[in-house]
Amino acid sequence: LGTAAHALCAEPYSRLFVRLKGRDPLTPDGAMAWRCFDLLYASRLLSDGYGLSREDAVVEFYGEIDGMEVEWTLGALHSYLAEMNSRRGDSPLPGAEGSNRAPSHSPAAAGFNGYTSSAILVIFLAAGLLLAVFGYHLSRNSSRLSLSTYEEVNRRA
Description:
By secondary structure, the protein is mainly α. The chain folds into 3 domains: 56 residues, no CATH class; 56 residues, no CATH class; 43 residues. It contains 6 helices and 3 strands; from the N terminus they run H-H-H-E-E-H-E-H-H. It has a 3-stranded antiparallel β-sheet. InterPro entries: GDA1_CD39_NTPase. One of its GO terms (molecular function) is hydrolase activity. Pfam families: GDA1_CD39.
């Protein structure tokens, strides 16, 4: 995926637009300019976030879970967790039965390992903690600004 992303990004946009126009019904002409960003983002998310090898060419994912369409990122995570449960002999994940799984991909080929779900959990927890700390400091700074502005107005009066 990384190699494909870099090759696409190296191609001049005018040639890329002509080559890909109308090939993917989910990519309207206006979104074509974002394809380089999309591929680089997906490549980094899969390799750095989910732990897949940069050389892997396939990823298994669910297109829908319990009849609801899901984004490929959630579908890939759900597919990976369902595969891990299956390997351990645990019961299937809720929503896994009857889900629309992309048949031409496999988690084994994608390079998932036993640490991937723990790493994903740690990443989400760390991101949540950072957002909470940022929000706390932002709210404290905005209340200080309001108080100092109020005091300044009263001094002038």
